[in-house]
Structures are given as structure tokens and as C-alpha cells.
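ping. complex inputs:
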Amino acid sequence: MTVRGVLKTLSPLFACIGLLCVWQIASLRLDTESSPTALEAIKAIPSILGDKGSLLNILDSIRRMAIGLVLAVMFAIPLGLLMGRIKAVAAFFNPLMMIIYPVPKAALMPIIMLWMGVGDVSKILVIFLGVSLPIIYHAFQGSKAVEEKMLWSGAAMGMSAPMRMLRIVLPAALPEILTGCRTGLVLALITMITSEMIARQSGAGNILFNSLDMAQYDTVFAMILIIGAMGIVFDAAFEKLRLSLVRWSQPRDDMPLSFT
Amino acid sequence: MQVVSLRSDAHTDAEPVSGRKSSGVDSAAAMIEIDHVSQRFQTSGKQSHLALSDINLTIEDGAFVSILGPSGCGKSTLLYIVGGFVQPTDGVAKVKGKAITGPGPDRGPVFQEFALFPWKNVLGNVMYGLRQQGVKRAEAEARGRKLLEMVGLKGYENFYPKELSGGMKQRVAIARTLAYDPAVLLMDEPFGALDAHTRTRLQNDLLDIWDRQRKTVLFVTHSVEEAVYLSDKVIVMSRSPGSIKQIVDIDLPRPRKRADLLLDARFQKYIVDIEKMIDDGGKDHL
Ligand SMILES: Nc1ncnc2c1ncn2[C@@H]1O[C@H](COP(=O)(O)OP(=O)(O)OP(=O)(O)O)[C@@H](O)[C@H]1O
Ligand SMILES: [Mg+2]
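pong. complex structure:
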């Protein structure tokens, strides 16, 4: 690897270290109780992850997030693809989505809690709602953009309409769909934490706010670090998967926008 | 470069091709019939545009027919109607006596825009039709490789469409359609993006395939020479509205040899005559 290559690979790491340094210096200058230094926050991480209760809470959060995300993907991709190819489906769902899209899904949380309690179902539902829309939108765009002659070629080979949907529209729209999924993944994390901040019962968001209530500021900041790291790891892992699936569509020298 | 041809032993369904002729009743020889076909398109601003006006045409089974005409005269549209991709606003198109209601594997298109599957590599594209029709992987692959060798793309099996030049994409598209062995080939300027050498070679290969399997070919081109060289019949179209201006029977002996034909006075006369027809059409609109 060239020097430039090494620098490029390590650049996200430098960015992290840089941010932590800025934090460290700023908190040392501020020197108030509510702003622990970066080092103090990092030192608090092992005690959180070492605590069985906290760890289970965090894993529980991830589980809810994964369920919501998977359900959303399974629902949103077929719907988006159908909307892109069948005018009637688009005509029916488009106005509906236009109304739902700008509503912050977390704002629905109180109503959903009223109906379904503060348990898993409410939180998973909110994650599902938050994640579905961007994936539907991207699947719709990708499906709409599929070159018609490609579908004609398939039809001439004797492929039925459902077959063409599965074997031509889906792979052709995959790059766009996966872009939607990447947005969806990050949104899932955000909605997960938000839902736990509202329905204070368990999870990573709950730990965060409990420690805030108890003025354990190093734990608060440690949790922020943990949640942030989770986001970075999930995103990087997904990006790896995405690239391996759509290498055929990548322009030759793409701008790197991720930790790859 | 060795030219590998597509032998009929490469696929088992070569027999029905010759047996086709006896299957029809009174329209035994007609493969494609186009009966008072018109096509009107809605354009933006509530206007409509007559792309094809009252086209009548019969193409015999096993005939090689070329379509010539100025850009926008409806050549592609006519091909799409025969392919079943577009339903004409008026009239009927029939294949083997049956009205065309949609696409089918008996009519194989080669589109002007190639329309390759970008997520499949070259070999995957060529095998695609066969795989969809349930042909075993090994068999489809063998046939795919043979076809790629024929179109001069041996060694490019694992390339993806984005990694190919325009001419190479075109050759993949041709191989992809030939792979599932349609009785009718609908070719829309298939050699347009090729260099002169490859073009000549593929013309000869196409004649070879056609000679051996007697496919019916409907071939759109902008090259008068190519049309005369390949065809039994050349259809000259004019524009606004798209209509058939003249049909020229090309009465040249087969098998044709390019080198001989270029010196043949009859060949030259066909070219000059047809060029004149197209030119006259051009003047109408200037
Ligand atoms: N989907 C469509 N909607 C509206 N107009 C169309 C559509 N398809 C074709 N046309 C019009 O019909 C006419 C014929 O188009 P067509 O593509 O068949 O021409 P062509 O003879 O194949 O031209 P070229 O030689 O440039 O490929 C053109 O005037 C075009 O604008
Ligand atoms: Mg055209």
C-alpha cells in the first residue's frame, strides 16, 4: 500500500482522535462537573460494558433495532418496487406517504404507547415506521429508473411479469435500494434511542437518561460514545456488504464517503 | 481470426425450424403480417404524433428483410410492434397467422440501446435467456461460450457491461438474443456501433446463421450497402407520417460474397437506386 493509501484508510481514525482531543482540551478549560473530559468518559466505558444489566440492556436495544429494520426492509422493498412499476400502486400509496413522510415518527410514540404499552411492540413499530419511508422512496426511485428495454428483453425471453420484477427490477434497482437501506440503518439507530428515551423502561437510551437524572455525567458521555461507536460499526459493516453486492454498478473512481 | 459459427448441433431444437414451413395452412409462407398498422403517440401538451401510418407488409418465413429510412420515420416503432412490446393504435400485426398480443421467445429483439443486464457479466448476460427457460447451467454455459467466440468476445466472459466499449456491448446483445434461438430476429441497427472490420465479419456470420437456420430477420439499418448485401427485400420508409415508400426486391444470387458483389454492377445499381429513393424523401422535408 502506498503512503497515500495508508493515510486514506486511517483518515477516519485520525478524525476520531482529533475530535476526542478537541473535547479533552475544551472540557479541561471549562472544568465544570457536567462536562467530563474525553479520558474520563472513555474510562467509564468498561464499567458499563462490564455490568451485566447494562450490557443486556444494550443488546436488547440492538435486538429491537434489528427486528424493526428487518421488518421494514421486507415490507418497504417490495412496496417501493411495485410502486415504481405499477401506476395504480403508486397512485394509491403516494399521497399516503406524502402525509406520513414529514411527521417525526418519534412524535407518534406517545399515541403508540397509549395503544400498545411501553414494551417492545411500540418501540419496534416506531423503528419500523422511521426506517420504512426512506427505503420505500429509494426502492421506488430505483424501480422507476429501470430501463424499459431491459424488461422487454426479459419478456422476449419468456419471463412472466412477477419473474421480471424479481429477476430484473430488483437487481437493477439494488444499488438505489441499498442506498436507502444505509440511510434506514442509521435512522433505525436514531429511532431506537429516541423511542427508549420516551418509553423509559429499558435499553441504551434509558441508561443514558437515567445516568443524566442521577448526574453521572461520565456515564452519560460514555454512553454517547458507545452509541456513536455502534452507529459507526453498523454503518461500516453495511457499507462493506453493499459494495460487495453492487460492485458491478460502481463508477471506476468513486468518492469514498465511508469507512471502507 | 477464426470465425466459429453457430452450428445447429449446438442446440437440439434445430429441426422445428425447417419443419415450420409445413405447419401453416394457406398463409404457410407468411411469418409476419402487418395489416393496416398505425401508431399514434401522445406527446406532451395534449398533442399527438403519427409515428406510423397505415403500414401493410408481409414477411415470408425465412426471409431477410431490411428497413431503411430517415431518423424518426418509425423503424424502431415498427420493430417494437412486431416484438409485441408496443400495441399499435390501429390495425393488427400477426406472427404465424396469430395476432401479436405480447412478447414471446419466438421473436428475439436486439435493441438499439443494447439493454444489457449490468449486474451480470458477459457470459451471464448471454446465458440469461436459456437459464430463464430452464436450460441446465452447464449446457447454457457451453452455448454461451460458443456464441461469445462467434461474436469475437472470447476472453471477455467475466467482464461486466460497464467495462465494455459500445461495439462490444452490441455484440453481447446479439449473442444474448441468438442464445435462445428465436425464429424471428428483430434487429435494430445491430451493427451501428461497430468498426468496419467487425461489422463485415458479423454481417457474414449473420448471413451464415440465417443460411443454416433460415430465421426470419427484420433488420433496421442506416447503411444502404448493408441492407442490399444482406436482404431479400429492402423496405424504404419515409417520414411524417412514417410510411412505406417503396419495397425493393433484391434479386442477387446466394450465397453472397462481399468481394464479388462489390464488383457486381447489379449490386451497385441497387445501392444507387435506393440511395436516390431516400434522397428524394429527404428533399420533401427540407
Ligand atoms: N414512446 C414514445 N412517445 C412519443 N413519441 C414517440 C415514442 N416513441 C417514438 N416516438 C416518435 O415516433 C417517431 C418514430 O420513432 P422511432 O424511434 O421509431 O424512429 P426510428 O426510425 O427508429 O429513428 P432512428 O433511426 O433515429 O432510430 C419519432 O418521431 C418519435 O419521436
Ligand atoms: Mg430507431
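The interface with chain B takes residues 147, 149-150, 152-159, 163, 167-168, 171-172, 174, 246, 248-249 of chain A (CB under 8 Å).
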